[in-house]
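The protein record quoted in full:

***
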Amino acid sequence: MFLLRFVTILALACGLSLARAEPLVLLTENLPPFNMSVAGTNYARDDGVTGISSDILRAVCERAQVQCQQILRFPWQRVYQQTLDDAGYGLFSTARTAEREGLFKWVGPIARNEWVLFSKGDSSIQLNSLDDARRYRIGGYRGDAKTQFLLDRGLEVQTALRDSENVKKLERGQIDLWVTSNQAGRFVARQEGLDNLKVVQNLHTADLYLALNLQTPDELVQKLQSALDSLRAEGALRSIEARY
C-alpha cells in the first residue's frame, strides 16, 4: 500500500513538473513598432519577432524565469480567439478595454498607443470634434479596438483585413480618414510609400497589455507583473523603447 501511494504521489509530482515545463505561448500580430516580423511576413516565431512590446516581454519572461514562446500570426481575430479559448496562451499588444476586461487576465502596461484619425497630408479636412467625422468615409482594421471605438460611438467604418489596405485606400481617395495608431500607422504607411499623413483628430491614448487566458494561474500572472514592474523601475523599458 505504501509503495502504491509513493508511486501515485511521484506520478502526480512528475505530471505537475511537466505541466510547469510547458512554455507560455505569446501570440501577436504585425503592429509596428510594438510587435512585428523581422522578415516582414505574416508568420514568425521567437527571434523572428521583434518590436518594443516583443523585446519587453522577452525581458519580463527572462526576469520571471518563465519559458515563453512568441508566435506572430495573421489575422488578429485568429490569435485573439485562440487566446480566449486555449489555456497556456497570451496575446500582445492588447488594448485593455471595458469590453475585454473580464475576458482575460492582464499583465502591464507594457507600452502606450495613441489612437488617431489620419488624413492625407494635403487634405483640407479639419475636425472640431469627433462628430464632424461622420460626414467622411473612414477606414479601419477589422476586429481592432480603435475601429470598435468609433463603431461604439455610432460612426460608420469600412473595415479591411489588413491595415495596409487602408493606406492604399487613403492614397487612392477611396476613404477620407483612417483610424489607426499614430506610431504604427506611420510605420505601415512608410512601408507602403506614403509619408505625408496628417493627424486630424486625437481619439484616445491606450495602454497596451499582455492578455492571458483566464485559466492562467494567478501566481504566474503575478510573477510576470512583478518582473515587469521591477524592469520599469530600473529604467530597462525606456532603454528598449529608445531602440525603436
